[in-house]
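Students often ask why inverse folding is considered easier than folding. One informal answer: many sequences map to the same fold, so there is more than one right answer. In these notes we will look at a single instance of the problem. The structure comes first.
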């Protein structure tokens, strides 16, 4: 019998070579990405350094994940300590002390009576779990015909089949169709470009009230849940009018429908409060959060539901199986240790307050760029989740031609200039860590300013 030998590991510098990149999938088209691969090698605070040593300002918290900054020693030490005690517990037989501690902390911090927690690893898993919870809850409470889920076009709820079916982003759905049955979509509250041709505040909030008509046409007795992001992300930071979420809350109350908030991005302090539910003053029946909850130090997500919903899953095992949902790494002690440390860091250092203050500074910076360049039509978002929509003419809202992809050009130029942000053809977004300083916000805006100017100069503007 021969003994296999392990190949030598490639060096960090070699990881940028195409022959080695052929062994990994990333989220871009591989052939194009591999021409100029971005491979981050280290990070600290609000900065990355790639494999070549180039520095980048992280105006995106990785992808809205690094809530308390890179290389946060409190979180790292908490994980180290947990590693010495227990790194994995048997999920089929129970849980562990750290998971119980984190669940109780979340129950205390979440708004209203949101007090029962299901842990998973990522956002897709907990939005999927919320869909299952809604269907199982109605089945246990005498309404088994309720199974449909209403969500919004332009939304993104995750990559698993159920969460993807709830999503409304054609670029990510079409290639995977057909989707799961039982999912309906309505137009989002895109006030800047109202799909109904109306203007706020004289619109009657048609985007919300129209759901009543959808329920009537579909039969409300077949609808289990309405799932929305308090601030939509993939549609260009869709910031709803203040009346929107309260209307949804009222509709759900009157029709025995669960209101699910997808706070995968907006949770963990991003909007200036621990949860966007507090920012907007509306408590859902189920709240899903992930990304910033563990600061990116370990995979962690949480679905938090009302006590009355959780109570429905308590009962004799003969006729109540409990909540039928589970994953191998749910409640992982390392992840939960990271989550506890992140929440304590946010609370003890008032990082929600910093998100509000720096969010105001970021908004002011975007407003200066709008006045200077004349190609920003709208600024949207709350706290440290803000975006700008690029237009050819702010007065008429005329967009740039689709093939111009102005937002992509600006975002890529910003990357060349050492700034990481979220970019799409017509918009870009910032979401820096909650620990960001005023000086760092100003530097991020300055790099964006320079990047916009360079793109406009290339276009002859």
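Output (designed amino acids):
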């Amino acid at each position: 019998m021969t003994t296999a030998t392990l190949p030598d590991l490639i060096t960090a510098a070699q990881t940028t070579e195409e022959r080695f990149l052929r062994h990994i999938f990333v989220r871009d088209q591989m052939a194009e990405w591999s021409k100029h691969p971005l491979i981050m090698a280290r990070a600290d605070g609000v900065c990355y350094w790639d494999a070549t040593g180039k520095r980048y300002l992280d105006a995106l918290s990785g992808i809205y994940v690094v809530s308390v900054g890179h290389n946060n020693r409190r979180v790292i030490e908490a994980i180290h300590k947990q590693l010495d005690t227990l790194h994995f517990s048997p999920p089929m037989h129970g849980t562990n002390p750290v998971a119980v501690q984190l669940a109780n902390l979340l129950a205390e911090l979440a708004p209203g009576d949101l007090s029962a927690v299901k842990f998973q690893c990522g956002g897709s898993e907990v939005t999927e779990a919320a869909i299952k919870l809604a269907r199982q809850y109605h089945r246990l409470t005498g309404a088994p015909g309720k199974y449909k889920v209403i969500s919004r076009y332009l939304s993104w709820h995750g990559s698993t089949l159920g969460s993807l079916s709830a999503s409304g982003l054609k670029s990510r759905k079409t290639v995977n169709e057909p989707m799961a049955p039982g999912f309906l979509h309505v137009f989002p509250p895109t006030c800047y470009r109202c799909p109904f041709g109306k203007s706020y505040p004289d619109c009657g909030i048609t985007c919300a009230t129209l759901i009543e008509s959808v329920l009537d046409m579909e039969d409300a007795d077949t609808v289990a849940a309405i799932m929305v992001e308090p601030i939509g992300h993939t549609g260009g930071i869709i910031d709803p009018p203040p009346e929107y979420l309260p209307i949804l809350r009222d509709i759900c109350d009157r029709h025995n429908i669960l209101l699910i908030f997808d706070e995968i991005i907006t949770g963990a302090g991003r909007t200036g409060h621990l949860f966007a539910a507090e920012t907007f003053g509306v408590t859902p029946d189920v709240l899903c959060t992930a990304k910033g909850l563990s600061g990116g130090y370990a995979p962690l997500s949480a679905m938090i539901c009302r006590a009355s919903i959780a109570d429905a899953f308590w009962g004799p095992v003969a006729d109540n199986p409990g909540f039928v949902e589970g994953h191998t790494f749910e409640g992982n002690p390392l992840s939960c240790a990271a989550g506890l440390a992140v929440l304590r860091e946010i609370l003890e250092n008032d990082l929600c307050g910093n998100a509000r203050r720096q969010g105001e500074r970021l908004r002011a910076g975007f407003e200066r760029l709008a006045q200077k360049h004349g190609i920003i039509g709208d600024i949207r978002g709350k706290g440290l989740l803000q975006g700008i929509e690029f237009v050819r003419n702010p007065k008429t809202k005329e967009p740039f031609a689709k093939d111009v992809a102005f937002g992509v050009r600006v975002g890529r130029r910003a990357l060349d200039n050492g700034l990481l942000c979220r970019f799409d053809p017509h918009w870009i977004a910032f979401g820096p860590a909650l620990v960001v300083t005023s000086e760092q916000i100003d530097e991020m805006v300055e790099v964006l300013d320079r990047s916009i100017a360079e793109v406009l100069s290339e276009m002859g503007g």
